[in-house]
Automatic annotation (TrEMBL):
Residues 4-240 form the ABC transporter domain. The keyword Nucleotide-binding applies. Keywords: ATP-binding, Nucleotide-binding. This is ABC transporter ATP-binding protein. The keyword Nucleotide-binding applies.
Length: 260
């Protein structure tokens, strides 16, 4: 059984002037422990599709199942215990510390008005160490750099202990070192991952499979080597590219070619 199963999904914004197309005929799967990337031009519908997958945008038609259960037949709390989401934008911090923000990830697992247990606090501390934020727990979230805030939000998602992680451009605001560290950590974290990517070389290096979205439709899916061809990149992104094999690893490497 697939961890995430999206079948024949369609969705369109209520205000059509926001975009001239709709998500249509979307079929997508994520297996347990699999790292799946969603790529496509800006405005192709990646964020809208992710919102359907984590129970924000109700689909007009089609279904979204998590471990065989229709997420729209379950409560938001049921979904929050199983799906963690990391978005591009930073939340309002309202004077919260790093520890406060990360601890929010434990809320779906706690009874009403229950505080953090000793096990919760240990999990939070361990996770902060894993994302390179040891000793930052009492720092103000607002005082952090963009990259540090991104890692705090990753820690919040991880302490949720989800079955599925959904990430929208997870490497935004990160320098190259932390881009690589974050994606390496995600590959070994355990949950299935569905993430949108702007950087196709990162997607090629870390994803098991890719889906290409263009104007609301899946136009290709498969391994990075199957999907990231010169012809498809020109068709979808409108840019010439040289695609070869990375010299140090068996995945594609993309070199964009500037117009003459």
């Amino acid at each position: 059984m697939s961890l995430l199963q999206i079948n024949n999904l369609s969705w369109e914004p209520r205000q059509r002037q926001e975009q001239p197309w709709r998500l249509e005929g979307i079929d997508l799967q994520v297996e347990p422990g699999e790292f799946v990337g969603l790529i496509g031009p800006n405005g192709s519908g990646k964020t809208s599709l992710l919102r359907c997958a984590y129970r924000f945008n109700p689909p007009d038609t089609g279904t979204v199942h998590l471990s065989g259960e229709d997420i729209w037949q379950q409560t938001p709390r049921w979904v929050a215990r199983r799906i963690a989401v990391m978005l591009q934008e930073f939340p309002q911090d309202f004077g919260l510390t790093v520890m406060d923000v990360v601890a929010m990830g434990r809320t779906p697992h706690q009874s009403w008005f229950a505080g953090d247990s000793a096990a919760d606090l240990q999990l939070i501390e361990t996770t902060l160490q894993q994302v390179g934020l040891t000793g930052k727990g009492n720092h103000s979230f607002a005082s952090l750099s963009g990259g540090e805030k991104q890692r705090v939000l990753l820690a919040r998602a991880l302490v949720q202990q989800p079955d599925l992680l959904i990430l929208d451009e997870p490497t935004n605001h990160l320098d190259p070192r932390f881009q690589l560290e974050l994606l390496q950590h995600l590959r070994g974290a355990g949950p299935g991952v569905l993430a949108s990517f702007h950087d196709l070389n990162l997607a090629a290096a870390f994803c098991d499979r890719l889906y290409v979205l263009d104007r609301g439709r899946i136009v290709a899916s498969g391994t990075p080597a199957d999907v990231l061809t010169e012809q498809r990149l020109e068709q979808v992104f409108g840019v010439h590219a040289l695609v070869d094999t990375h010299p140090l690893a068996p995945h594609p490497r993309i070199t964009w070619i500037s117009p003459a």
